[in-house]
Amino acid sequence: MTVDWTEYGAARVACSDALAALASLSANSIHAVVTDPPYCAGGMTEAARQQAKGMTPGGQATGWFGGDAMTTWGLIALLRQVALEAGRVVVPGGSLAVFCDWRMIPGLGPALESAGLRWRGVVVWDKLSQGQGNTRIRPRHEMILWLTKPGPAVRGPRTIGTVIPAKRVPPARRHHPTEKPIDVLTPLLEALVPESGVVADPFAGSGSTGVAALATGRKAWLSDADPHFVEGIRSRLRAL
Ligand SMILES: C[S@@+](CC[C@H](N)C(=O)[O-])C[C@H]1O[C@@H](n2cnc3c(N)ncnc32)[C@H](O)[C@@H]1O
Questions:
Q1: Is position 1 within any domain?
Q2: CB of 183 within 8 A of CB of 167?
Q3: How far is CA 231 from CA 63, 68, 82, 175, in A?
């Protein structure tokens, strides 16, 4: 399958399925895949995830997005494939960093590891305030699984700890329903990607990974399956 990449300065953007986008990149050609796939956590049960809201494609129209209605097992199968491709495209020692929530960790970590990567740790995004929900212990964090391809360490210029504090993007400033703050992505990229290095995000959403990469002198290959969001990435990059 041909993937049509368009250049915007140091970024390239494509509307594509994640696997096809990664398959279009050459082996050992980038330093990290940093990505935030759908969590498929839109319902408390597997059945709830597959109800109408989650099954509706197209993000902005519904406030939701395609791909978020998969079962946990479907998501894990997809992300193992993503990890296999990530392991092919990153240089030896390069990284795969995957955002996730607590529901995914028991299945997802081993699935990514089984693609031939080394599971190096879990980074916590501390949102600095608790979320909503009819529960006594309310979520205040999300997680990022970090794996590397065997080889000599590929380092960015910055050393970070396993907790990154950053406020959520306020709803009025959001380009995407689940947009990740630049303040989370910047330290991750500075730790994992050398200056002038390249990061790919195949579930790019609003393109936040690209905005953080460009702001710190890195290159970014950004793709998403939803044409609406891809148009948003293009406008965001044009406005930089
Ligand atoms: C959690 S959002 C990413 C948000 C992004 N990190 C941001 O800061 O804006 C996940 C994205 O994955 C996209 N997506 C879902 N399934 C996909 C697939 N199979 N291939 C590529 N993109 C997909 C959705 O359209 C959605 O925009």
A1: no
A2: yes
A3: 16, 20, 23, 11
| pLDDT attached to residue 50 | 55
- Average pLDDT by consecutive 10-residue portion of the chain (240 residues)? 95 98 98 94 58 44 58 91 98 98 93 98 97 88 98 98 98 94 98 98 98 98 96 96
Amino acid identity for residue 115 in this structure: A
Domain membership of residue 10 (yes or no) is: yes
Ligand 1 atom 4: the closest Cα is on which residue?
A: 205
Element housing 69 (H / E): none
CA of 149 to the centre of ligand 1 (A): 23
Sign of CA dihedral 82, 83, 84, 85: positive
Predicted TM-score of the model (pTM): 0.93
Q: CA-based Rg of the chain, rounded to a whole angstrom?
A: 17
CATH code: domain of residue 18: 3.40.50.150
Is residue 52 exposed (0-12), middle (13-18) or buried (19+ Cβ within 10 Å)? Answer: exposed
Percent of the chain with pLDDT strictly greater than 90:
81
Domain count, the chain: 1
What's the 152 CA to ligand 1 centre distance in angstroms? 30
